[in-house]
From TrEMBL:
This is RrF2 family transcriptional regulator. Signal peptide: none annotated. The keyword DNA-binding applies. Coiled coil: none annotated. SUPFAM superfamilies: Winged helix' DNA-binding domain. It comes from the Bacteria. It comes from Phenylobacterium conjunctum. The keyword Magnesium does not apply.
Length: 143
């Protein structure tokens, strides 16, 4: 399940994409994303560390996207904020490990379904960018 933290982060990034290169303050982003300012600031700091946004400090500071909105996928942002997209660690491509209670990966009766779910989820989220969300493309996919 997508965390509230990821939802706020994605909403703020979509607002930055809509700003078309203009810098927005954390207060403006919090208002536009309907997110608590302090919580959003922590999320934006994490996104800055991972080079999704660039922050400028000072009286005239704010945030801008570090890359073009079309180059930032929902999958990338969710992985930064929430971690792997996979429902179980044994099917994760970015954080693979054997499940603690699984005796054998090869005979696991759950793994095939979890692999398919991970692949389908990754396919949709990797193919949907901030630019798509900024103009409302594919909204029916997430309805």
């Amino acid at each position: 399940m997508l965390s509230q933290k990821a939802r706020y982060g994605l909403r703020a990034l979509v607002e930055l994409a809509r700003a078309d290169g203009a810098q927005l303050t954390s207060a403006e982003l919090a208002l536009r994303a309907d997110a608590p300012r302090k919580f959003l600031e922590a999320i934006l700091l994490e996104l800055a560390r991972n080079r999704i946004v660039v922050s400028r400090r000072g009286k005239f500071g704010g945030y801008i996207l570090a890359r073009q909105p079309s180059e930032i996928s929902f999958a990338e942002v969710i992985r930064i904020v929430d971690g792997p997209l996979a429902l179980a660690p044994c099917v994760s491509r970015t954080a693979f490990r054997k499940c603690d209670d699984c005796p054998d990966l090869a005979t696991c009766s759950l793994r095939e379904a979890l692999l398919r779910a991970r692949d389908a989820t990754a396919s949709v989220l990797e193919g949907y960018s901030l630019a798509d969300a900024a103009v409302g493309q594919g909204a029916e996919v997430f309805a």
